[in-house]
Amino acid sequence: MWQLLMMLVVEALRSFGAVEVPAEESFSQVPAEESFSQVPAEESFSQVPAEESFSQVPAEESFSQVLAEESYSQVPAEESFSQVPAEESFSQVPAEESFSQVPAEESFSQVPAEESFSQVPAEESFSQVPAEESFSQVLAEESYSQVPAEESYSQVPTEESFSQVPAEEGTSSLSGPCLSW
């Protein structure tokens, strides 16, 4: 822009005859080797050779194109975490080491009947206790609701009855088996 202004000024002065600038010193005709708008390619910043250009770094030095053996996104299968061999994989553990497929002899959900808590044999079961050990079916000889007549309070024999105590024993010296029991 300033060259255009200088050219106009020089032309104006030349037309009036005040100044006559030689062609070799004219600002509008600067030699190509000194011109800023026509810098040679070897010194130009916009045309840097490929070997020095940052946008065209060779593949062997490029960070975006790292060789496969050093790349983290393309790790070989033998070192990859997402493709671990079956013998080292946690999601595909062999049956003999798997927690979800434990053999029956070690499984907690399939414990054999002889060790199972939900299928305890009748002789050890609390809900099916044999009659001889059951509290709800106690034998008659130990039952409080079915006491034999000879020990019953409501059916005391006449000879031990309080309302018919023999006169010779009286109420003050009563010592029948009913009281001692």
From TrEMBL:
This protein's name: Uncharacterized protein
Signal peptide annotation: 1-18
Region entry Disordered, spans: 26-52, 77-181
Keywords: Signal
Keyword Signal on entry: yes
Entry superkingdom: Eukaryota
Polar residues: bias regions: 152-175
